[in-house]
Write a structure and sequence with these properties.
It is built from 21 helices and 23 strands. The protein is an alpha+beta fold. The strands form five sheets. The protein has a six-stranded antiparallel β-sheet, sandwiched between helices. Helix 1 (7-30) runs antiparallel to helix 2 (40-51).
């Protein structure tokens, strides 16, 4: 049934068309147009097409009335009558045409399935030539195209460029076959993504079998295509991984018939896939392996248990290879085994290594039995804390278990019970660390024998792993270290006693030095009073010289004690080096005169730094005194100035050069140690502590001291001090 719009809407439609035509006709006449009806007929046609016959009549009547009332009556009434008759005929014909088109659409809609039957998929109809007639909302939402753009062939623009030609070719073929189906990528308007779609179309024929329309659906299969691609890639990865293994992968039916082998395994057998399928590959098995595989397969297949079997096969040249075959069952959703898949691993190298290890262990066992060594082999394959009897012992087992007890196998817990309670945790941690870290084990601990005696044991072990890095076993050796441990403990006791003796010596030297300084100070004062009373006297001069020497020796002993105890303190103040050197020279004037050496002093002006004045005085004094001792009366040079050390730092450099006997090269690094001297002790007096104390003072100031010398050409001692030491200085 054809439904018309409400009457009021029809009248409004007719009046709107008439008004537009009347206005345009008036404009046409102003431009010199002759016919007053040139635009009236289109208005009547439009009214009848949109609203039917009566809308066309209303439009014609309103046009005539408006023309008579508002435009000059230039024509005759006959013209209006002819226009009215023509308008009535045209309205009738237009209405019949509109009704025919709607009947065709209703007939097509009646033959099409309802939209609910298609759900979210796209639906379309097309003319026999391929032009779109109809598309549902899903189409317009997905493509972003409008009805006009779709009908005009714009849909081709949303087809992927690589699929366009195939789409055109397939449609041409469908014109002949009467069936259209293609997978193609269509662009989605919301994000511009091309998604795979399955496009199907079937022809709608009339009673004569002629195609009148095409009815089609478009289903999104992008997820399915991606899944297919993922599956293809998974299969390819499976194939590549299988080929990367030495002998690849295999697949078998539930009955044990082989369906697939990797090419690497076929190459080993020198067989083709057709020859190896089913049970053909069994011809390459050694008889013992063939029998074992039958028994193993029949035992495991019914239960769906994992499969593992070592196989011995002959290649094309007749050489026998050992292959480890492993497999797992493939089950369906109900848990039923449907097939088997597995891998073949080349274990020739492993078998050869195991054989070498077995022979090596046999040789080691024989050697251990003839020596004082216990060999242990710890099997880790069951688990980290292995099953009972997992440690196998060979060699001198009595080192662990004592005389009379020589078990061949023990468990871990039984072994740990033999370990001294204080050492058990340490031994357990060492073993766990070695196994988990795949590292060697080295631990020393105490063993308690049944008679209660304690023995020290040194145990070393090596962890063996498989190809996957899993720990398989730990093999090691143990020796009795009781005697060496007791000797070590005795040595440590003696060392501690020596340290205690040294501490007592240092304490004695410190006390003695302090006690000696008191009478020496009093002796100095008395000698000075005597010299003032009686004047110059050779005996008094000798007494004063020996008193000063004794004071210097005591002071050196005090400094040595302070250095050993870390109590040689450093107090920084600003020191003008030129003034300090002059004071030292003035104080050493008698010694310089007695040595007969001329001292040439070269000091840069305004040379200063932050140092401990008393300690730097001690450094300069010791270096000059040392030069006077060994200078053999020849000239001595003392230089002080700025410089750059090896690290690029600015330093103050003090150099004392003599022209005496020199220092042998072998002694040049030793003279800065305690009690070391460049000559025999009988030749030169002193304790051999001066240069050692100088080095400690210089290094406490973050400086360095060195010597350059050739035998017979004298020696040059050089001290380098930073003008401003960095950070807090540590007591020497």
């Amino acid at each position: 049934m054809i439904r018309r719009p409400p009457w009021a809407l029809l009248v409004l439609t007719a009046l709107a068309c008439s008004s537009l035509a009347f206005v345009l006709q008036g404009l046409l006449r102003q431009q010199g147009g002759e016919s007053r009806f040139v635009l009236f007929f289109p208005a009547v046609f439009a009214s009848a097409l949109l609203g039917g016959f009566w809308a066309g009549v209303v439009s014609a009547a309103s046009l005539v009335l408006a023309s008579l009332l508002l435009l000059p009556a230039l024509g005759i009434p006959v013209e209006y009558a002819i226009f009215l008759v023509a308008a009535l005929i045209m309205s009738h014909l237009t209405e019949r045409l509109s009704i025919g088109q709607q009947l065709k659409i209703q007939d097509l809609e009646a033959r099409l399935p309802t939209p609910a039957a298609f759900g979210p998929q796209m639906v379309f109809t097309a003319l026999p030539s391929g032009g779109f007639e109809f598309a549902n909302r899903v189409w317009f939402s997905y493509t972003g195209l409008g009805p006009e753009e779709t009908a005009a062939g714009g849909w081709l623009r949303i087809v992927h460029p690589e699929d366009t030609q195939a789409m055109v070719n397939r449609w041409r073929m469908a014109q002949q076959t009467g069936s259209f189906e293609i997978e193609s990528r269509l662009r989605r308007a919301s994000d511009g993504e091309y998604r795979w779609q399955l496009i199907r179309a079937l022809p709608l024929r009339d009673r004569e079998g002629k195609i009148r329309h095409w009815f089609g659906t478009i289903v999104d299969i992008d997820g399915l295509k991606r899944a297919e691609e993922d599956l293809r890639q998974s299969r390819e990865q499976f194939r590549v991984m299988g080929e990367s293994l030495p002998y690849g992968v295999w697949r078998a039916s539930l009955a044990g018939e082989m369906e697939y082998f990797s090419q690497s395994f076929l190459d080993l057998l020198s067989m083709s896939m057709e020859e190896a399928r089913g049970s053909g590959w069994l011809r390459k098995l050694e008889p013992d392996s063939a029998q074992a595989i039958r028994v193993n397969w029949l035992a495991r297949v019914p239960e769906g248990e994992p499969w593992e079997q070592e196989l011995r096969l002959r290649d094309g040249s007749g050489r026998v290879h050992t292959v480890l075959s492993r497999g797992l069952p493939v089950k369906d959703l109900t848990g039923k085994v449907t097939s088997w898949v597995g891998i073949n691993l080349d274990i020739d190298d492993r078998k050869e290594a195991e054989d070498r290890l077995r022979r090596s262990e046999e040789r080691l066992r024989l050697a251990a039995e003839t020596s004082n060594v216990a060999i242990w082999d710890w099997d880790l394959r069951p688990q980290w804390r292995p099953a009972p009897q997992a440690i196998r012992w060979t060699g001198s087992r009595e080192l662990i278990f004592g005389p009379g007890e020589v078990p061949l196998r023990t468990g871990w817990d039984e072994f740990v019970r033999r370990v001294h309670p204080e050492d058990r945790e340490r031994v357990t941690l060492a073993a766990e660390s070695a196994v988990r870290g795949r590292s060697d084990m080295d631990v020393e601990f105490r063993i308690i024998w049944p008679d209660g005696s304690v023995h020290w044991i040194r145990s070393k072990g090596h962890v063996f792993v498989d190809a996957a890095g899993q720990a398989l076993r730990v093999v090691g050796a143990q020796i009795d270290t009781t005697e060496s441990k007791l000797a070590e403990m005795q040595t440590e006791k003696l060392l501690e006693e020596a340290r205690e003796a040294l501490r007592a010596r240092d304490e004695f030297l410190s006390i003695a030095s302090h006690e000696l300084m008191t009478p020496l100070t009093s002796l100095h004062m008395q000698l000075q009073l005597l010299r003032r009373r009686i004047g110059p006297n050779a005996t008094l001069e000798i007494c004063e010289r020996q008193s000063r020497r004794l004071s210097a020796l005591v002071e050196e002993l005090l400094d040595l004690t302070r250095i050993r105890l870390g109590k040689l303190s450093i107090e920084l103040t600003e020191v003008k080096l030129g003034e300090l050197i002059n004071e030292v020279l003035l104080r050493l004037t008698p010694q310089i005169a007695q040595a007969g050496s001329k001292v040439d002093v070269r000091v840069e002006p305004e040379l200063k730094g932050r140092w401990d004045r008393a300690r730097i005085d001690q450094v300069v004094t010791n270096l000059l005194t040392n030069a006077l001792k060994y200078g053999e009366g020849r000239p001595i040079t003392l230089e002080a100035g700025h410089g750059i050390d090896l690290a690029g730092r600015k330093v103050v450099r003090i150099a004392v050069r003599d022209q005496g006997r020199g220092i042998p090269r072998a002694l040049q690094t030793r003279i800065f140690e305690r009690f070391e001297r460049a000559v025999n002790g009988a030749e030169i007096a002193g304790l051999g502590l001066g240069l050692y104390i100088v080095r400690q003072i210089v290094e406490a100031h973050q400086g360095r001291i060195g010597v350059e010398s050739e035998e017979g050409q004298g020696a040059t001692f050089t001290v380098e001090l930073p003008p401003e030491p960095e950070g807090k200085l540590q007591a020497a």
